[in-house]
Amino acid sequence: MKIQYETELYHFGVPGMKWGVRKDPETVYTNRIRRLERKNARFENKASAMKARGTRLRAKGTKLESRSLRKKLFESESHFAKRAGKQMLKGKKLQAKGSRLEARSAKYERKIYKNKLKVEKYNKALREIMNGERR
Hints:
The structure is a single chain. With about 140 residues, the protein is mainly α. It contains two helices and no strands. Helix 1 runs antiparallel to helix 2 (about 80-130). The longest helix has about 55 residues, at about 80-130. The mean pLDDT is about 80.
């Protein structure tokens, strides 16, 4: 780019961008807090649903496993014993899936905790702005 005049002004930013305009910090923090609270509500719903489903699956798996164990012990015919073995395996798989879901719900609970810390930080900054301590 060749400069023709020394007084010529070039703008290398985004076309249509206003120069020197800053957003109001109060609205920025308010919007961030609102967004994080919405995220937390979504995460809480997901975490509780996953935890409930995981608990149900683990209970179902335990029930299947114990029922098939009883069948295996009391029924000597090979057909029933084979079927009981499959049911036992299915019960173990359900228990494992339930445990994985509960672990994933813990991940969402960690995210909720981190977001709550951020909300506290933003609330503190917002109070400082409102009191005129910070600009």
